[in-house]
Design brief:
The N and C termini lie far apart (about 85 Å). It is built from four helices and two strands, in the order ααββαα. A hairpin with an 8-residue loop joins strand 1 (about 60) and strand 2 (about 70-75). Helices cover about 70% and strands about 5% of the residues.
Length: about 140
């Protein structure tokens, strides 16, 4: 089997196609999550905490000389990234929790009992007839 035919067999397998679809949907969902956090969650949170931004915090190892930029450790950006991650993770957690709650409520909803089969109906009729016959003197 040639390399081309092996690759073709690999590429059209259901798992590969499903994975590709999942990655594409995941990328689109990532945009939704980013917009939700950046446009819905962060503005009120920023207002609440007074617009604190750690990304300007740095330790200068070597000052800028001429055209050479300064050498800095930008630990503030790292702290800001951690805070952003925690906010995103918490927002996702709350969304998943709400979805799971809706699924549980959906699963708890009672369904109508199934109708008896023809065999069960006939057996019930036979049982009732036997009771009537046995109760005669």
């Amino acid at each position: 089997m040639g390399v081309i035919s092996e690759f073709k067999a690999f590429a059209v397998k259901g798992n590969v196609v499903d994975m590709a679809v999942g990655i594409i949907i995941g990328a689109a969902f990532g945009k939704i999550v980013s917009s939700f956090v950046g446009d819905v969650i962060m503005p009120p949170l920023g207002l609440l905490i007074g617009g604190v931004d750690f990304s300007d915090l740095v330790i200068t190892l070597k000052a800028a000389v001429g055209d050479a930029p300064a050498v800095v450790v930008a630990y503030g950006k790292f702290i800001q990234s951690i805070i952003d991650f925690v906010i995103v993770a918490f927002a996702i957690f709350m969304g998943v929790k709400a979805i799971n709650r809706l699924k549980r409520e959906e699963a708890v909803a009672p369904s109508a009992p199934p109708l008896p089969s023809k065999e069960e109906e006939l057996l019930g009729e036979i049982r009732d007839l036997l009771k009537v016959q046995n109760n005669r003197p």
